[in-house]
Amino acid sequence: MYAFDFEKPTTVADAVAALADDEAQPLSGGQTLIPTLKQRLAMPSKLVSLTGIPEMQGVCKNDAGEVCIGGATPHAVVAAEAAAHYPALAALASNIGDPAVRNRGTIGGSVANNDPAACYPSAVLASGATVVTNNREIAADDYFDGLFMTALEEGEIITEVRFPVPQAANYQKFVQPASRFALVGVFVAKFADGVRVAVTGASNDGVFRWTEAEEALSANFSPDAINGLTVDAGDMIGDLHGTPEYRAHLVGVMTKRAVAAAS
Amino acid sequence: MPKDSGIGAASKRREDVRFLTGTGNYTDDINVYGQTYVYFLRSDVAHGRINNIDTSAAAAMEGVVGIFTGADFEGIGGLPCGWQVTDRFGEAMQEPAHPVLAQGKVRHVGDPIAAVVAESLQQARDAAEAIEVDIEELPAVVDMKAALEEGSAKVHDDLTSNLCYDWGFVEDNKAAVDEAIKNAAHVTTLELVNNRLVANPMEPRVAVGEYNRSNDESTLYTTSQNPHVIRLLMGAFVLGIPEHKLRVVAPDVGGGFGTKIFHYAEEAFVTFAARKLNRPVKWTASRSEAFMSDAHGRDHVTKIELALDADNNFTALRTETYANMGAYLSTFAPSVPTWLHGTLMAGNYKTPLIYVNVKAVFTNTVPVDAYRGAGRPEATYQLERVVDKAARELGVDPIALRRQNFISEFPYATPVAVEYDTGDYFATMDKLEEIADLAGFEARRKESEAKGMLRGLGVNCYIEACGIAPSNLVGQLGARAGLYDAATVRVNATGSISVMVGAHSHGQGHETAFPQVVADMLGIDESMIEIVHGDSSKIPFGMGTYGSRSLAVCGSAMVKATEKIIKKAKKIASHLLEASEGDIELKDGQFTVAGTDKSVAWGDVTLAAYVPHNYPLEDIEPGLEETAFYDPSNFTYPSGAYCCEVELDPETGRVTIERFAAADDFGNVVNPMIVEGQVHGGIGQGIGQALLENCVYDSEGQLLSASYMDYAMPRAEDVPFYVVDHSCATPCTHNPLGVKGCGEAGAIGSPPSVVNAVIDAIQSSGKKDVTHIDMPLSPQRVWAAMQG
């Protein structure tokens, strides 16, 4: 890596101030950023750690019944502390990467990075969660904006993610054999007013809602409701580990399995 | 009853104490006073002409001690190839130069262009980024068949083509084989790819070069399986340093799997630069560098045809293989698809006529060389796949077809020039059927099907030629080195023993197993014996560890040296006991006069050898130290039968291995626990090749699987609990221990059974037209095959 300055503020306000410098970059769990730096693919002047800010840590439930997760909360903490409130979300967190990744990587880091094969974006989108930053609240439907792209502005920090808790939910991940990221991951969430289905890993445009499946499942929440539905392979990623056709097929299979597991 | 010490005991691996407590001494742990660091600027294009390299800005940067390019190595030797293959027409293979740093052209992604030596690695890396390289990109040669077409770009401009050699074996059999195939009652044909692999030892390669101006001695610390081979190749062929001025040390090495046999440019560079700069120079590979600079393995494209008569007897076998050499010839690359592959094509079967054709091809990819099994996995895979396919085509039981064609009498001279000394293929197959519980398979298949899964069973046999090998034979076959080994047994005055061995231990457990042998011969405690290896200044000139040879070859040398020790010790004892030498017996560390209660202990004799106050100085020299060199008369031939049971998810194509059984014949076994560990590790690597691992280049010669994000290594959850057995032992007939070697068996024997099992699972669903899928059998490949 190249040399950089390092700050570890203890308040969101201090972090925002520190990030005002040119070429300053936030560092959360570092599970993507540190390997990037080691390969000299980025040259920030300053890294601002977000992991020393108490108000960005932990899992709780608010008065509206939402599960609120601090932006710098590691996956392992979500896996343990969200289990009673939102089991499907906790299960997703417990299966990201390996123990080292889960103890360093954070929900805010993952959602801010928006890797097209990351797990968390599917939970955020399928749950209709709210991404809370230092200066606004962003609905999930307005947040994700294609591969590695989000509604976040330069210097904006995810302080919290608020998840409405569905009646039933499940996440099914089919892993890419090498990286163990999602080759295809499908998060299904059933709410009183309908079902939301979010797909990660598969699309050239990053995480997306499969609206056809949502409509079918809202009418009939059973695996059979998916029969005959397909996503367009033309929009899917093709790489060493899966052709677009294979990914399109897996979207259907994983959706059915998620519904079966959630039912 | 299992023994608790000596030969046959499951002694705990003493070296593991330091490995598991973080006190091992690996090459990267070695830091020398005044050390500098080198960073290699490597090509990011597969093929290009170097028009200019401007190092002036880089040279002026802070901390830079020296910058080297190919020009600095003009007039200095290139990396040598240790094996010359003669082609079908009697001509020597085409052998290109392999400069330490690229000269004129770059030939693969990762080819080193320049080396920056600086006070810190950071500074070296910064300066490397300031080097301006003008490279004119050329069309990349990637596909082997296209590489041989008229008009293809050439990897080496001074060679006539991209063909290294066109080898035929046995050329005199060709017409008879062609005729037999033409007239056969049935011919089964299979075209397949043996996928390119990256060895990925846990420890990446490291090299530290040091020069001592006071005595003109160079020292290289390196991650090697064979320090003396490196001393020989680098000293004699690259840098021109005589042996007595060059010391090569390979300390603890974290896994080799073949890829640390070879002499690499980085080793030569640090030794050369340390001398030039009069500063120690250290290089530690990053994992990314390992992917593009460690020799890769396998990468064969093969068509195999098996002919059978009307009674299902194998009558002839013909193969045509394209073998990728990569951009340069790595140290033993030419031998792998030829003498380590063609000679094994008989397998366990009495096929009378065999012809093997191999075209070795240069491409703009990382050089390919031996990887665990080296040639023998490629032979086993194609043979055991085609036999399985034949059984399916003929509607006969694949095990019965194998049994019908087994070699049953030994010694057996194959039609491909080797003579199997011993074996019992029926016994290992019987054992396999028992330990794999074949009888219970149908019930297990029904259980899987009830869950919506498919279940398949795959079986295969294997034979390998190990204990590499007779020097006079390999010399005739083109080896440019001897392949004996050596051991010195140094008995100290108090009776403890240091055994200096030419073999190198990088995971094999020599430090535990070798003392078991000496302890058994002398009747003393294993803890009194220590193995010394890996330092050319301490050990006799041996040839190192590869080809499952350590115990069979170096262990035999150690036995011979220990026999000399016993002979001399008995002479000393007879003097002390005032008895005739012929009456002295050695048992449990005591020398006794036969038929009497007169005895002296091991320690009394060893002390007398070094404090020779009462000693037959007129007859024998003082001291107790003996060296033996051992060159075997034949290869050893471990064999066995493996069984894999898979479950397949038809909706996703995902395969999981549910059961795996291995019945091996390794001859005699010194430490059964270590042997089982070797088999487990080998099968794990075989499963990796069969289901996960794949090194892929795109058409531009860019390495797509250049990190663990895309290169899938097997993990603990990918492998089952193994059932292994080595009780069907037919001892090797020609080495004193009767051992055959066990290091490569698992990697050789496992891929075909995995693939056979997957095909069985798919066909059980009625899809009989799926007869083959190329490795790795990834979910998408299996799913795609099932859609067809």
UniProtKB/TrEMBL annotation, chain A:
<keyword id="KW-0285">Flavoprotein</keyword>
<dbReference type="InterPro" id="IPR036683">
    <property type="entry name" value="CO_DH_flav_C_dom_sf"/>
</dbReference>
<dbReference type="InterPro" id="IPR002346">
    <property type="entry name" value="Mopterin_DH_FAD-bd"/>
</dbReference>
<protein>
    <submittedName>
        <fullName>Carbon monoxide dehydrogenase, medium subunit</fullName>
    </submittedName>
</protein>
<dbReference type="InterPro" id="IPR051312">
    <property type="entry name" value="Diverse_Substr_Oxidored"/>
</dbReference>
<feature type="domain" description="FAD-binding PCMH-type">
    <location>
        <begin position="1"/>
        <end position="168"/>
    </location>
</feature>
<dbReference type="GO" id="GO:0016491">
    <property type="term" value="F:oxidoreductase activity"/>
</dbReference>
<dbReference type="InterPro" id="IPR016167">
    <property type="entry name" value="FAD-bd_PCMH_sub1"/>
</dbReference>
<keyword id="KW-0274">FAD</keyword>
<dbReference type="InterPro" id="IPR036318">
    <property type="entry name" value="FAD-bd_PCMH-like_sf"/>
</dbReference>
<dbReference type="Pfam" id="PF00941">
    <property type="entry name" value="FAD_binding_5"/>
</dbReference>
<dbReference type="InterPro" id="IPR016166">
    <property type="entry name" value="FAD-bd_PCMH"/>
</dbReference>
<dbReference type="InterPro" id="IPR005107">
    <property type="entry name" value="CO_DH_flav_C"/>
</dbReference>
<dbReference type="GO" id="GO:0071949">
    <property type="term" value="F:FAD binding"/>
</dbReference>
<keyword id="KW-0560">Oxidoreductase</keyword>
<dbReference type="InterPro" id="IPR016169">
    <property type="entry name" value="FAD-bd_PCMH_sub2"/>
</dbReference>
Automatic annotation (TrEMBL), chain B:
<feature type="domain" description="Aldehyde oxidase/xanthine dehydrogenase a/b hammerhead">
    <location>
        <begin position="21"/>
        <end position="139"/>
    </location>
</feature>
<dbReference type="InterPro" id="IPR036856">
    <property type="entry name" value="Ald_Oxase/Xan_DH_a/b_sf"/>
</dbReference>
<dbReference type="Pfam" id="PF20256">
    <property type="entry name" value="MoCoBD_2"/>
</dbReference>
<dbReference type="InterPro" id="IPR008274">
    <property type="entry name" value="AldOxase/xan_DH_MoCoBD1"/>
</dbReference>
<dbReference type="GO" id="GO:0005506">
    <property type="term" value="F:iron ion binding"/>
</dbReference>
<keyword id="KW-0500">Molybdenum</keyword>
<dbReference type="InterPro" id="IPR016208">
    <property type="entry name" value="Ald_Oxase/xanthine_DH-like"/>
</dbReference>
<dbReference type="Pfam" id="PF01315">
    <property type="entry name" value="Ald_Xan_dh_C"/>
</dbReference>
<dbReference type="GO" id="GO:0016491">
    <property type="term" value="F:oxidoreductase activity"/>
</dbReference>
<keyword id="KW-0560">Oxidoreductase</keyword>
<protein>
    <submittedName>
        <fullName>Carbon monoxide dehydrogenase, large subunit</fullName>
    </submittedName>
</protein>
<dbReference type="InterPro" id="IPR046867">
    <property type="entry name" value="AldOxase/xan_DH_MoCoBD2"/>
</dbReference>
<dbReference type="InterPro" id="IPR000674">
    <property type="entry name" value="Ald_Oxase/Xan_DH_a/b"/>
</dbReference>
<dbReference type="Pfam" id="PF02738">
    <property type="entry name" value="MoCoBD_1"/>
</dbReference>
<dbReference type="InterPro" id="IPR037165">
    <property type="entry name" value="AldOxase/xan_DH_Mopterin-bd_sf"/>
</dbReference>
